[in-house]
Amino acid sequence: MAALVCVLLPTGGLTGQARAADAVTYFVSPTGSDSNAGTSAAEPFRTLAKAQTAVRAIDKSTSGPVTVTLAGGVYRLTKTLAFTAADSGGGTAGTVWWKAASGQSPVISGGVRITGWAKSGAAGGKAWSAPAPADLDTRQLYVNGVRAQRATGALPVKVTQTAAGYTTASGDPMAGWRNPSAIEFVYRGGLGAWTEPRCPVASVTGTAITMAQPCWNNSTQRVMRTDDSGRTVNLVGRKSITESPTAVENAYELLDKAGEFYLDKSEHRFYYIPRSGEDLTTADIEAPSLDTLMASSGKASDMPSRIGFQGIQFSYANYTVPNTGTGFSEIQATYQVTGTNGYATQGLCDFVADGTCPYGSWTKMPAAVRFTYDRNIHFDHDYFVHLGAAGLDLGNGSQNATVTACVFTDISGNGLDLGGVDIPQPTATAQRTSGITVKDSHFYDIAAEYHGGVAIDAGYIETSAITHNQIDHVPYTAISIGWGGWPDKVKLPAQPNYSNNNTISNNLIYQHMSLLDDGGAVYTNGITGTSMATGEHVTGNVVHDQLNTSGGHVLYTDNGATYVSILDNAVWNVNVTPWGSKHGNYTLNDGTYDPTDIEGNYWPNGPADYDSKGVLIQKNHDITDPDQVPSSLIAAAGIESSYKAILDWQPV
User: Fold this and answer.
1) Of 402, 335, 381, 18, nearest to 192 (Cα)?
2) Rounded distance, CA 127 to CA 263, Å?
3) Which of 245, 384, 553, 614 could pair with 391 as two cysteines, CB 3.0-4.6 Å apart?
4) Nearest to 66, CA basis, from 102, 15, 17, 21
């Protein structure tokens, strides 16, 4: 019998099932062809869509690892590359990776190249012009990878605010401007020191400026509470814009400085004043056209999983909603009030008649790359740059995702969004945003247009870590986490939510809060867990050069912040107090404070040590010089040594 068995075994000594499954690699190049086999670098596909179709056809339960290799160059998308369950890895294939070819720099672009530039008579002969695609609307233009500024200037006339907009004492010069309905008013600090709302002009006639709707009502008629609190029902910011615009944008007549542009949509033409050294006859000039570059299906029943992206630059995504009557009526961190009756109902739940729930669910700015309801999505050494809204959104139902050694820069709004604010208490596990790790990434020059944006913004999330990142040169807050704490302002419990076990650790943050007020390096709002053990932990972060003097703190516990531990951080060269404050415990409403633990921090002019009514503050170190901070604490903060090369990365 033994002899017979030996005869029946294959001569190779291994059964077919025991052999390692063969790896599958597809190749893509902007110079390839979708009629190619795509199985070698010599015969690559041309489009990402073709490669996606090929990957979907693979039986990943039996194949080896699956990789899509992208050659350098620009991959221009005309529609969003959508990922569904059909794109998932799994089985023996593991994670399906979309990777840059070794030493090459692929760019996934939503832009169109603008050519045909010639000198024009605009701006006293300083401007050049070029035709724009007939259907193009955009708020950005990039010249050789440098963001241009929409034509901007001061309001040219004194105005008095009215219910519909403004009046002027005499004729308004803007009435004679080209395309007055394209003009946009900007209000720095207009709905709270942390905001910069924007509303378009609808018309200018004689002495009347009529503002576009619903932006104007949403920014001037927010509903006040009926008690004596003097607060709006949304408890965030003011009832109304009251100051005159701090700037006027998007007017042909304001085009006067090098680096400014104007898109005349009526004649489908760009105007631009070159900067020194720019040759528009040879420059690469890009205008965003496509809003979303990549996205998941957004359905829990069709979720992608085990997909990775490595070495890819995502650029030139568009966002034009603020050009419409919706405008940009900001609440906080680029969330907005929208809708015809938004000011009276949106996110106000049972605080008002016909309010929409849950409380505080306002409109989120979209991202160029967006995944919701997904599992194990990975971004590794990817680059989010030249984008018109947010960069990357790992939203509701995103679980076990990683963002490692990525770069976020030159983004109009938030750099990275985690979770959402519309599902504080999920009814299904699939709705929870959990297990996200963001590490060793560089965020800088974020919120380039919407200055109330933040580098990393997290709503309701759990068991997630933001660690060893570097965040610098941002106009407002670096990391914002938590939501729903505002009822604390009127002595009501913060909104219950599922947030728990989140850690913000060993980040290096500096030169933030450069324009707006009432923020900080790490800003926390609302309930963060169910105990000190499961609450938010802010540890080992190094923060310096927060020089804004008009409001806020550094490690900021704001409204309803509960179960927050701020431990062993270092802070220096700041013009505000390092820690926010304790808050009344309006859940128990027994005279105690929301539990908070503040220990072992090195900072100047910090709070005195005390333990009072549930707030423990002890063993902090009052310093006058950064040399008093342990060198080991400073060395441990920021991007770890194996990833520091991303600090030298430059966009394509």
Assistant:
1) 335
2) 12
3) 384
4) 21
Beta-carbon contacts of 54 under 8 Å, excluding residues fewer than 6 positions away, are 26, 38, 45
Secondary structure (H, E, C), 289-328: CCCCCEEECCCHHHCCEEEEEECCEEECECCCHHHCCCCE
Q: Backbone phi, then psi, for 643, in 5-degree steps?
A: -115, 0
Per-residue pLDDT reduced to its tens digit, 309-361: 999 999 999 999 999 999 999 999 999 999 999 999 999 999 999 999 999 99
What backbone phi and psi angles, to 5 degrees, belong to 233? -65, -35
For the segment 62-72, the average pLDDT, to the nearest whole number, is 97
| Rg, Å, the chain Cα set | 27
pLDDT tens for 45-56 read 999 999 999 999
* Tokens encoding 197: 């709302």
List of residues 6+ apart from 285 with CB closer than 8 A: 113, 114, 115, 117, 130, 141, 142, 143, 144, 272
Q: How far is CA 53 from CA 58, 276, 509, in A?
A: 9, 46, 42
Q: Which of 114, 116, 118 is nearest to 138 (CA)?
A: 114
**Distance in angstroms (rounded) separating the CA atoms of residues 441 and 438:** 7
Q: Report the SS3 class of residue 231.
A: coil
Q: How many residues does the chain have?
A: 652
Tell me the pLDDT tens digit for each residue of 113-165.
Answer: 999 999 999 999 999 999 999 999 999 999 999 999 999 999 999 999 999 99
C-beta separation of 372 from 349 below 8 A: no
Residue 501: pLDDT over 90: yes
pLDDT band for 71, please (50, 70, 90 cuts): very high
Give me the pLDDT at residue 6, please. 34
Please report, for residues 346, 395, 421, the alpha-carbon distance to residue 498 in angstroms, rounded to integers and kept in the order given. 22, 15, 11
In whole angstroms, give the CA distance from residue 646 to residue 489: 42
For residue 449, the one-letter residue type is E
* Average pLDDT estimate for 580-608: 86
Cβ pair 223, 235 in contact under 8 A: no
- Which amino acid appears at position 498 of this protein? Y
Q: Which of 251, 249, 255, 248 is nearest to 123 (CA)?
A: 255
Distance CA(540)–CA(523), nearest Å, equals 15
pLDDT reported for residue 12: 42
> What is the spatial distance between Cα 617 and Cα 597, in angstroms, rounded to a whole number?
6
